[in-house]
Amino acid sequence: MAGRTRTRLSGFGFRLKRGIRKLSTAKPSIFVTAFILLAATVFFLGGGVYDLLAEPLIAIPVGSRILFFYPYSVHEQAVLESFLVMTSYAMGFLGVFLMYQSTKYAYKPRQAYILLLSGVVFLLVAYIYVENLLWSKLTVTT
Distance between CA atoms of 15 and 26, rounded to whole angstroms? Predict the structure, then answer.
Protein backbone atom coordinates (compact mmCIF):
# COMPACT_ATOMS: atom_id res chain seq x y z
CA MET A 1 0.00 0.00 0.00
CA ALA A 2 2.76 2.45 0.91
CA GLY A 3 4.67 1.49 -2.24
CA ARG A 4 1.77 2.43 -4.50
CA THR A 5 1.35 5.82 -2.84
CA ARG A 6 5.07 6.52 -3.09
CA THR A 7 5.07 5.55 -6.77
CA ARG A 8 2.08 7.78 -7.51
CA LEU A 9 3.59 10.73 -5.68
CA SER A 10 6.94 10.37 -7.45
CA GLY A 11 5.11 10.17 -10.78
CA PHE A 12 3.17 13.32 -9.89
CA GLY A 13 6.40 15.18 -9.15
CA PHE A 14 7.83 14.09 -12.49
CA ARG A 15 4.70 15.19 -14.35
CA LEU A 16 4.68 18.51 -12.50
CA LYS A 17 8.35 19.11 -13.34
CA ARG A 18 7.76 18.25 -16.98
CA GLY A 19 4.73 20.58 -17.15
CA ILE A 20 6.67 23.46 -15.59
CA ARG A 21 9.51 22.91 -18.06
CA LYS A 22 7.08 23.00 -20.99
CA LEU A 23 5.47 26.20 -19.73
CA SER A 24 8.80 27.93 -19.12
CA THR A 25 10.21 27.06 -22.54
CA ALA A 26 7.02 27.65 -24.51
CA LYS A 27 7.18 30.42 -27.09
CA PRO A 28 3.79 31.76 -28.15
CA SER A 29 3.34 32.96 -31.70
CA ILE A 30 3.82 36.63 -32.48
CA PHE A 31 0.18 36.86 -33.61
CA VAL A 32 -1.15 35.64 -30.25
CA THR A 33 1.18 37.97 -28.35
CA ALA A 34 0.21 40.96 -30.48
CA PHE A 35 -3.50 40.18 -30.10
CA ILE A 36 -3.22 39.93 -26.31
CA LEU A 37 -1.30 43.21 -26.14
CA LEU A 38 -3.85 44.91 -28.40
CA ALA A 39 -6.77 43.64 -26.31
CA ALA A 40 -5.11 44.86 -23.11
CA THR A 41 -4.40 48.27 -24.65
CA VAL A 42 -7.98 48.70 -25.86
CA PHE A 43 -9.25 47.60 -22.44
CA PHE A 44 -7.07 50.13 -20.60
CA LEU A 45 -7.73 53.01 -23.01
CA GLY A 46 -11.46 52.31 -23.12
CA GLY A 47 -11.85 52.63 -19.36
CA GLY A 48 -12.02 49.00 -18.34
CA VAL A 49 -10.15 49.55 -15.08
CA TYR A 50 -12.59 52.33 -14.16
CA ASP A 51 -15.48 49.99 -14.86
CA LEU A 52 -14.01 47.32 -12.61
CA LEU A 53 -13.11 49.61 -9.71
CA ALA A 54 -15.74 52.36 -9.65
CA GLU A 55 -18.82 50.29 -10.51
CA PRO A 56 -20.40 52.95 -12.71
CA LEU A 57 -24.03 53.13 -13.73
CA ILE A 58 -25.38 51.11 -16.60
CA ALA A 59 -26.76 52.79 -19.70
CA ILE A 60 -30.36 51.98 -20.53
CA PRO A 61 -31.57 51.50 -24.12
CA VAL A 62 -34.97 53.12 -24.67
CA GLY A 63 -36.48 52.46 -28.09
CA SER A 64 -33.96 53.45 -30.71
CA ARG A 65 -31.99 55.66 -28.30
CA ILE A 66 -29.52 54.86 -25.55
CA LEU A 67 -29.75 56.87 -22.36
CA PHE A 68 -26.60 57.47 -20.35
CA PHE A 69 -26.77 58.72 -16.80
CA TYR A 70 -24.19 61.24 -15.62
CA PRO A 71 -25.06 62.08 -12.05
CA TYR A 72 -22.12 64.34 -11.24
CA SER A 73 -19.98 65.41 -14.15
CA VAL A 74 -18.73 64.60 -17.60
CA HIS A 75 -15.77 62.75 -16.12
CA GLU A 76 -17.89 59.75 -15.21
CA GLN A 77 -18.85 57.06 -17.67
CA ALA A 78 -21.29 54.21 -18.01
CA VAL A 79 -20.40 50.59 -18.68
CA LEU A 80 -22.08 50.57 -22.09
CA GLU A 81 -20.25 53.75 -23.03
CA SER A 82 -16.93 52.11 -22.15
CA PHE A 83 -17.87 49.10 -24.25
CA LEU A 84 -18.76 51.32 -27.22
CA VAL A 85 -15.51 53.27 -26.91
CA MET A 86 -13.51 50.04 -26.70
CA THR A 87 -15.27 48.74 -29.81
CA SER A 88 -14.58 51.94 -31.72
CA TYR A 89 -10.91 51.88 -30.66
CA ALA A 90 -10.66 48.32 -31.94
CA MET A 91 -12.32 49.41 -35.20
CA GLY A 92 -9.81 52.26 -35.51
CA PHE A 93 -6.94 49.84 -35.01
CA LEU A 94 -8.44 47.56 -37.65
CA GLY A 95 -8.49 50.53 -40.03
CA VAL A 96 -4.83 51.31 -39.37
CA PHE A 97 -3.97 47.64 -39.78
CA LEU A 98 -5.80 47.46 -43.14
CA MET A 99 -3.97 50.56 -44.34
CA TYR A 100 -0.69 48.92 -43.33
CA GLN A 101 -1.61 45.72 -45.15
CA SER A 102 -2.36 47.72 -48.31
CA THR A 103 1.32 48.66 -48.58
CA LYS A 104 2.18 45.00 -49.14
CA TYR A 105 0.25 44.92 -52.41
CA ALA A 106 2.24 47.44 -54.42
CA TYR A 107 2.06 45.26 -57.54
CA LYS A 108 -1.69 44.69 -57.19
CA PRO A 109 -3.05 48.23 -57.27
CA ARG A 110 -6.71 47.27 -57.16
CA GLN A 111 -6.32 45.18 -54.01
CA ALA A 112 -4.08 47.82 -52.40
CA TYR A 113 -6.64 50.53 -53.16
CA ILE A 114 -9.51 48.48 -51.70
CA LEU A 115 -7.58 47.76 -48.52
CA LEU A 116 -6.49 51.39 -48.18
CA LEU A 117 -10.01 52.69 -48.75
CA SER A 118 -11.59 50.25 -46.31
CA GLY A 119 -8.94 51.10 -43.70
CA VAL A 120 -9.61 54.81 -44.07
CA VAL A 121 -13.35 54.21 -43.76
CA PHE A 122 -12.91 52.15 -40.57
CA LEU A 123 -10.63 54.78 -39.07
CA LEU A 124 -12.95 57.66 -39.95
CA VAL A 125 -16.04 55.88 -38.63
CA ALA A 126 -14.27 55.13 -35.34
CA TYR A 127 -13.07 58.72 -35.01
CA ILE A 128 -16.45 60.22 -35.84
CA TYR A 129 -18.21 57.87 -33.43
CA VAL A 130 -15.90 58.70 -30.51
CA GLU A 131 -16.20 62.43 -31.23
CA ASN A 132 -19.99 62.15 -31.45
CA LEU A 133 -20.10 60.30 -28.13
CA LEU A 134 -17.93 62.94 -26.49
CA TRP A 135 -20.01 65.75 -27.98
CA SER A 136 -23.21 64.17 -26.71
CA LYS A 137 -21.67 63.98 -23.22
CA LEU A 138 -20.65 67.62 -23.32
CA THR A 139 -24.05 68.86 -24.42
CA VAL A 140 -26.10 66.92 -21.86
CA THR A 141 -28.47 69.23 -20.02
CA THR A 142 -29.10 68.36 -16.41
Answer: 16
